[in-house]
Amino acid sequence: MTDEPSLMDARHGIGGNDPPVQPQEFAELIERMEAAFQPTLEAKIAKYIAAASDIPQPIKGRELAEAAVLLVKQINLAIDAADTMRKDFKDPHKRAGEAVDAYFNGEAGGLTRAKANALRALNNWMAAHPEIEKLQTEYGQTAYRKGGIEITVDDISEVPASFLMLDEAAVKAHLKKNPETPKILGLTVTKTSTTIVS
User: Fold this and answer.
1) What is the DSSP string of 28-95?
2) Per-residue pLDDT tens for 86-122?
3) CB–CB of 81/40 below 8 Å?
4) Strands (E), 116-189
């Protein structure tokens, strides 16, 4: 088969297979990020890390507890600032990636449908010829049968419990809405707490 489109030709037709950003450009990007990051956040981060390591375990006294609350709040603000900076630097590259994905997904959509049509026809043909377990072409390609299982639920109430998956999110939502719920058979509910600083 010599009339197939060349993959190399196709690759060059869409701009080649070279990375759109060269190593030197990566280095320059890192330098720009460092230049923006260092004056604004680097010293703060080092200070907050040091302060957090100085917090006694366990905390003794309300004054130290309040200091820890303030520190966590300051760290949260620094995390938000760093994340905003990250998104700002990443955004043009993210949009470029989305444009590339959209182009290839659009172009490949026809191929996906063509493959599905060809496989459907081939599957029907092989189903009509059960004596053929494997079909090999003169070019070396092989098609073969692969067994599978399809399951249809007729009556969920009749399905053995061992095949049912617990919906933990639904249980938690129920308990949150109905905190006085008595014990749920088969479950042990343990209340936990997490400290949130706002």
Assistant:
1) HHHHHHHHHHIIIIIHHHHHHHHHHHTS-SS--SHHHHHHHHHHHHHHHHHHHHHHHHHHHHHHHHHH
2) 898 888 888 888 988 888 888 788 888 898 999 999 9
3) yes
4) 134-136, 142-144
